[in-house]
Amino acid sequence: MSSKILQKEGERMEWERIIKEYVCSPCKVAVLGATVETGKPVSRVLSYLKSREFVIYPVNPKYMGLKIFDLDFYSSIKGIPEAIDILLVFIGPKNQGFLLDELKQIAYKPIIWFQPGAQNPQLEEKLKELGYYVVSGECIMAVHSTNCR
């Protein structure tokens, strides 16, 4: 467990619940910043999660009409046809300006997971204030491979 994520006992219990209910049990994950380039880290994580039966929604307006690993791209989070459990963020902070407004347009609050390199302390704090659970700087693939059978 990373001190970046957990600072209080209640947060540790919540982190353990997230791992059990969402990371170790396949859930619905939107991958913001997905690409058609299969050698990129985002694509390796996407492939890993798909191979473990997660329902994956690649999100990147640049690739609308294309597929990766036989999955259609979505132009936005709000365009995904069902509620997601985790929004996995792979885009850097300078490209995240739209994210808060887009999240406010959906009727539910997914876990917002900032992969290494995508951390944005200011946005993360705003999301927490709005009631989102935020994971920052942890790789979901590493968390899964370490904690799940």
UniProtKB/TrEMBL annotation:
Pfam families found in the cross-reference section: CoA_binding_2 (PF13380)
CoA-binding domain mapped to chain residues: 23-118
Gene3D superfamilies listed in its UniProt record: NAD(P)-binding Rossmann-like Domain
InterPro entries: CoA-bd, NAD(P)-bd_dom_sf
Protein name as catalogued: CoA binding domain protein
Organism: Acetomicrobium hydrogeniformans ATCC BAA-1850
